[in-house]
Amino acid sequence: MASLDKHIAQLIRQYGPYVVGLFIMYKITASMVRRAYPYGYAWFLNWLADRYNRGMWRQKEELFTDLADIKKQFEKGADVEEKFTILEIGVGSGANFKYYPEGTSVIAIEPKEQFKTYLEENADQFPGVKITEVVWCNAEDMKEVPDESVSAVVCTLVLCSVLDIDLVLKEVKRVLKSGGRFYFMEHVFQPERSFTHYTQRLLNPLQVKFGDNCHLTRETWKNIDKAGFAEVSYKRFSAYKMPSIIRPHLMGTATK
Q: What is the distance between the alpha carbons of residues 252 and 221, in angstroms, rounded to a whole number?
C-alpha cells in the first residue's frame, strides 16, 4: 500500500502541473471562444447574406416588386410629415435595403448587437433608405414599437430560427397598420418524401444546435395560414442555387 501511495504521489508531482495547466488553458480558451463566437457568427452571416443575395436577387426583386407602388399609395393619404416606414425583423447587416424604394424609413429589429458595424456600413451605401430606429430585441416581443405604426413588415431568413413563430406573427399583425403588408422569404421543410426531406430531418438537430436555432424542418406556411391575416399569398419553390438542405423555399405576402 505504501508503495502504491508513493507511486501515486510521484505521478501527481510529475503530471499534476501539466494537468492543471491544461485545465487552465481549456478554461481560458473556452472563455475566449464564447466571447468571440457572436462576432465571428455575425461576420459569417454578413458574408452569407451577400452570397444569398447574389443567388436569389431575382426572387427578391419579385417579392418586393410592389413596394414602390404601396409607398406611393401611402403617401397620397398620409400627412406631409409622415414617412413610409418598413419594419424589418432580423435586419442583420441590411441586406434587403437595396430593394427598398427611395425615401423609405426603416425600423430595424435585431437581437444581435454584433451586427451594428455591418448594418451601419451597409446603410451608408443606400442613402435613400433611412434607419430611423434600431431596436435590439427578439421579434417575439417588440414592445418598443407602437401598435399600427408601420406600413410594411419584412422578414427574410428569420422565421427559421425564432423561438416562437406564432408569437412573432402576432407581433407583426400588431405593429402593421390596417391594410399593411407583411413580406416574407424563408427556407422551409420539404414535406414530400425525398432525399432532401430525409436529409433535413437527419441534420436538423445539428443545425439547431450549431446554427443559432435555425431549423430545417419548419412548415412556416402553416403558421402564416392560421395567423389571421385578411389576405395571404405565397408560393413554395426550389432555390436551385442554394445547398440542397435549404433549397425548399417559401416567399409571399400577407395583408392585415
A: 10
CA–CA separation, 180 and 202 (whole Å): 38
3-state secondary structure of 138: coil
Check: CB of residue 191 under 8 Å from CB of residue 220.
no
Order of strands across the sheet that contains 150-156 = 129-135, 104-109, 85-89, 150-156, 176-187, 248-255, 231-238
Buried-exposed string 161-175: b where 16+ CB fall within 10 A, e elsewhere: bbeebeebbebbbeb
Q: Are the beta carbons of 249 and 188 closer than 8 angstroms?
A: yes
Give residue 15's pLDDT band: very low, low, confident or very high (50, 70, 90): very low
CA 103 to chain centre: 24
Question: Cα separation of 42 and 221, whole Å?
Answer: 27
pLDDT digits (tens, 9 = 90+) for 132-175: 999 999 999 999 999 999 999 999 999 999 999 999 999 999 99
Long-range contacts of 81-87 (CB under 8 A, 24+ apart): 83/132, 84/151, 85/132, 85/149, 85/150, 85/151, 85/152, 86/150, 86/151, 86/152, 86/153, 86/154, 87/142, 87/145, 87/150, 87/152, 87/153, 87/154, 87/175
The three grid cell numbers given for residue 157, joined into one nine-digit string:
431568413
- 66/48 Cα distance (integer angstroms): 26
- State residue 180 phi and psi, 5-degree precision: -70, 160
Is 1's pLDDT higher than 80?
A: no
